[in-house]
Each structure stands twice: as C-alpha cells, then as structure tokens.
Amino acid sequence: MASAAEAMPDRCADCEIRRVALCGQIDVSALRRLNTLSHTERLRAGSTLLWESESADVVGIVRTGLLKLTASLEDGREQTLGLAFPGDFIGRPFAADMEHSVTAIADSTICTFSRTRFEALAGEVPDLQQALLVRTFKDLDRARRWMLLLGRKSAGERVASLLLETAEANGADPGEPVPLPLSRQQIADVLGLTIETVSRKMHLFARSGVIALPSLRSFTVERPGELARLAA
Amino acid sequence: MASAAEAMPDRCADCEIRRVALCGQIDVSALRRLNTLSHTERLRAGSTLLWESESADVVGIVRTGLLKLTASLEDGREQTLGLAFPGDFIGRPFAADMEHSVTAIADSTICTFSRTRFEALAGEVPDLQQALLVRTFKDLDRARRWMLLLGRKSAGERVASLLLETAEANGADPGEPVPLPLSRQQIADVLGLTIETVSRKMHLFARSGVIALPSLRSFTVERPGELARLAA
DNA sequence: CGAACGATTGAGCTTCGTCAATGTGCGTGG
DNA sequence: CCACGCACATTGACGAAGCTCAATCGTTCG
C-alpha cells in the first residue's frame, strides 16, 4: 500500500483515505481502486477550488489546511456556510452544479476524485456510500445548528458561541492559548455580523475577564462557565 | 401491490414509497420488505413526532400534510430549520439523538419505519442508500442557502424571498392566489424575525402594489419582477 | 353576543451597521 | 536597523433597522 503511494506521489496514500474519510470500513480492493483515481491538489490560501453556480467535475477530501464554503448575493454580501477541516468531504456527487463556493482559508491540500468516477465507485461500494451518508447527515445537522445561531442569537451570543466551539474543538484548558485560524472578517462572515461588531464584542469579553486576547490570532478562555453562559 | 396495501391498511402503499421517496430505483422485493416494515402515523397539527436532544427510534417519509424542523434555546427562542413536505424524509438513520424537533404544522400522515430496521435494510439495498444520499445532499444545500438569508438579508428581503419561493413552489401565475400554509408566527420563526416585522413588511409590499393580501392565509403576486428584485 | 386568538398598528428603544479616524503588527527596502 | 507602507484591527460617533411593549382590530367559535 505504501509502495503504491511512493510509486505515484501524486496519489493519496490509501492509509490516509481509510483513516480520515472512510472510517476504515471499506475493503482493501475498493480502497486500491479509489486510490488510483485520486489526485492531490495543492491550494494556496485565498484561491478557490469550486465556484458557486458553476458545474463541478471533482469531489474531494481535505487532507491539510482549512477551507470555507461560501454563498454570495449579487451586491457582494457574503455568508460563510461552513468550514472544511482535514477529513471533511467537499463537492457534490450526483449533482453537476455547485450551490456554494469552496475557497482555501489557509494553504491546503485536497485529495480529489473525478466526480463521475467517484459516483460509479460509490455505486459499487455500499460501505463507501454509507460512510458518505453518515457524514452528510452530520454536516446537515451542523448547518442547521448554525441556522439557530444566525436566526436567533445576538451578536454577543454568536461571538461567544464561536469562541467556545473553537476552544472545545482544540480541547483547550482554561487559560491555555487557543489558535484562531480566522481573520476578523472571516469570523464576521461565519457569524453573519460585521467586522466592527466582532471586534467590539471580543474586547468587551476581554475587558470583563471572560477571555484574554494575547494576539490577533489566538485567545484564552479565562472563565469557561461564564463564556458558556454568554453563548446562550 | 395494491392488494398488500388493502390487506394491511396500516402499511404504506408501496407505489407511494416508490414514487415519492425512492424515485423508482429500488427493486420490487426490497420494496416489499420495506413495505412490511412500515407503519402509517397520523399526526394532528401542533403535535410533535421527534424531540430535540432526545433519542429517536423511528425514521419516516411524509405522505400528507406539512411539518417543521425546529431548534430552540433555553430561554424559549425558536428557529425553524426547515419544512418537510410530502415526500420528504425525516429522522436520522445511523444516529440515535435528534438535533432538532419535528412538529406537524398541519394534520399530517407519516410513513414510519423502525430506525434500526431501516438501517439494516439500507445496508442491504444500495439503491435505497443512494436515493437517501442524493436527497440528503439536496437538504444540505437547501439549509445552507437559508443560512445566506439568515446571515445577510434584511427583513424585507427575507419576507420577499419567502413569498417568491412559495409562489414558485405552487407554480402560481401573477395575480393568482397562492395559499400560505404558515401563520405569521411560523413565518417569523422560519425567517428569524418577529411577527410584527413580518406583518409590517407584508403590508408594505401590499401597499406598494407588489403583492396583494386577499386573506390571512393567502397572497397574490402582482409584480413578479419587482418581488424578485426585493428578494435580492 | 362575547371571548379568545391571531394579526395589525403605533411609539419608543436597543442593537447593530455605517462611516470615518486612528492604531498596530509585519514585511520590505533603504 | 530603521523607516515606510500596507493590511488588518480597533475605536468612536451616529443613524437606521428591527425588537419590545402595548393598544386595537378582525375573525372565528362557543
């Protein structure tokens, strides 16, 4: 298996696929076939892999970095619909047109597949399809949870929710610095706010001692209970 | 096939399942098995089939009526995450806990299955799983499109968007009355607004001649182009 | 007819967006 | 090493959008 990856450095190592994308459920021969279909795509921060309302012929799995899914209105207003971390699946099998753009926030590598070939393989490998279905249900629930935030939470609650979620995703202890992979503008786009409001709320929390802001791209949680209460 | 439905009136007619849920893709024997597993659940408007953050042991397909998916905050604020029309799938195979409630808006009937038995069958019938996957991708894109509305559109744009979408779903011509299945409060919950703001915007549009409001539960589109422009 | 419920309308206020000025960190080139 | 410039972030002043509270209206159902 490793030898295949060495022989074809442009292919994804199948151990990676197995671990990250498919939870070790699919059998080795299908894995081999999946592997020969894959290409590693390198994406610099800021460049876009898939474009809203254009047809896409690739799907993929994020290997490293961070990407955002976004939709825009004609006048330029933009909303981030979700983030894609390593292991997340991107693209739309069984559908030609994208409903959102996929753009790298940090330099990223994506393990890509021809969409039609991936579809064909999925039809032949039920375990692959089931893994994808379970994953898609999770994405759907994540998106819907965010709808509650966008529709009903105040600016302060939104910012607190994001900080809390980021801290938890990092398994950070109180007082320990948590890296913040997003700029203020990107935070605003995720939360449906403006950059100014995000800045004000973060510093409000910092002044009240709930968090600390040691640098622009990190924070610490000083009073976890209070932060959770602020997140509503 | 019809005879099975007659012999067991509590079962869903399989022609219904085939047409509505599975796009005619699954084979007849699997259909039969699916059929013997199904129960028809009748739900009165206002009653809840599945509860947020409780475990659920059923999944199902809406046959008649209309349901809403909702999530709430502790203090009672509620956001509607989506609507389930006839043909829509509800519940979460491969997951025990619900992330949202499912409540009937109108009297409804749902063709339900034991979740675990449905999961087992899905594992055996790849076409069923694929149909479900395609459907789930569509739901995900619908949810994400709504995130753009919740995060970035003004109250007027939200109301116009909902009216436009409702009119289009009904294939209504200009001037023709469109039924509105939601109360003002339910519209507000879908759009992330208050009932007062919804009322004001609707009457604003009516006064300007873009729509007309012949009754509380219907409207007509008088100037489609203008309504589309208002929806942004 | 009256009560109950949902919808409308108005007045005031809060929150958040807008606009503008200022500040801060960082890389580049002198 | 320092100065500069640029991008990003912060802060303040102000206004508008939408929420809250409250009164009224209309409809439906006893």
From TrEMBL, chains A, B:
The keyword Transmembrane helix does not apply. SUPFAM superfamilies: cAMP-binding domain-like, Winged helix' DNA-binding domain. This is Crp/Fnr family transcriptional regulator. Residues 22-91 form the Cyclic nucleotide-binding domain. The keyword Transcription regulation applies. InterPro entries: cNMP-bd_dom (IPR000595), cNMP-bd_dom_sf (IPR018490), Env_Response_Regulators (IPR050397), HTH_CRP (IPR012318), RmlC-like_jellyroll (IPR014710), Tscrpt_reg_HTH_Crp-type_CS (IPR018335), WH-like_DNA-bd_sf (IPR036388), WH_DNA-bd_sf (IPR036390). It comes from the Bacteria. Keywords: DNA-binding, Transcription, Transcription regulation. It comes from Sphingomonas rustica. Residues 153-225 form the HTH crp-type domain.
